[in-house]
Amino acid sequence: MLQTSQRSPRATAYRPAPLTIQTLGAFRCTIGVTPITAAQWRSQRACELFLLLINSDGYSLSREYVSDLLWPNHLGDAASNNLRVVLHRMRSALEPSAYATPIVQADHYSITLNFPAGSTIDSDEFRHAISAARRCTDARTALPHLRRACDTYNGLYLANLPLSEWAITLRAQYAADYADAVVRLGTILRTLNLHTELIERMWRALDIDAGITDAHQLLSDAYTATGHHDSQARVTATMRALVQPTLSATAASSSARIYPRALTS
User: What are the tens digits of pLDDT across the range 170-212?
Assistant: First the structure.
C-alpha cells in the first residue's frame, strides 16, 4: 500500500493534491482532478522513469540502476546528463507548483517518490487484493478480495504506451493474475448460485480478455442455471470456435464482441 510520510504543520499547509495513477488499461495520472498530459511529461523517458519508480519497493531506485536500465549504451557523464534532464521533466510534470514537501526527492545516490496523502495506484491495489485472496482458503473469505481485484483490473498494463522489456513482463504477469482471479471468482459465484453477478462479471472478463476459456464455460453454466438456453447455446458455439487451432489471434481477441449482448439478462 502507499506509504505517506508525516508532515509538519507548515508542510501540511502546502500539501499537494493526491495523485490517482491508473496503469491497468490506458495509463493515466491525475493530480487532484487535473490529468498530466503527454505534453507535460515532455518525453517518453520521463514517463518511463515515473513508471519504474511506482513499481519499485518503497517507490525508490538508485540513480545507477535507472541509468543502466534507460540508457544501457551510455556511460559516465552521458548517462548522468540524460538522467538529470529526464528527472527535471518528471519533477516538472508532477510538481506544477512549489511544495513544502516535494513529491520527487533525489540525492546523489537515489530517486524517491513521496506521494501525498490519499494517493492511489491501481496496480498496487490489484496486487494487494490478489495476494489477500491467495492467502484465503475459504471461498467466502476470498470473495471480497477477488471482487476488488477484478474490479481494479481494467485491461492490459499500460495499454496505450509502447512497452520496454521490464513492462512487457509485468503486463503478462498482471494478465495471468487477472485470469486466475476471475475464474476463481466465477467458480465461487456459481457455487453460491449468484448467477446474475456471475453473468455480469464473466461478460466484463471476456470484454477484457476473450481468451479466458473458463470464463466462457462459467457464462454458459450461468445461462443454463437461469434458463436462458438460447444464450447458453450461442456461448457454447463461440467457445468451441475459440479453441479451434486454426482460429487467428486477431479473431480470438475480438471474439467477445460477436456475442449478442441483447441476450444478456
Answer: 999 999 999 999 999 999 999 999 999 999 999 999 999 989 9
10: exposed, middle or buried (C-beta count within 10 Å: 0-12, 13-18, 19+)? exposed
Please state, rounded to an integer, the average pLDDT across all residues of the chain.
Answer: 86
Helix (H) or strand (E) holding 30: strand 28-31
The share of the chain scoring above pLDDT 90, in percent, equals 69
Strand partners, 74: none
CB 147 within 8 A of CB 136: no
Q: Per-domain residue ranges for the chain?
A: 9-113, 122-263
* Long-range CB contact pairs, 157-165, < 8 A, 24+: 157/23, 157/24, 157/123, 158/23, 158/27, 158/51, 159/25, 159/26, 159/27, 160/26, 160/27, 161/27, 161/44, 161/47, 162/44, 164/48
Domain 9-113, architecture per CATH: Orthogonal Bundle (1.10)
Quick one: fold of 122-263?
1.25.40
Nearest Cα residue to 167 out of 83, 49, 79, 82? 49
Query: What's the pLDDT tens digit per position in 143-162?
Result: 999 999 999 999 999 999 99
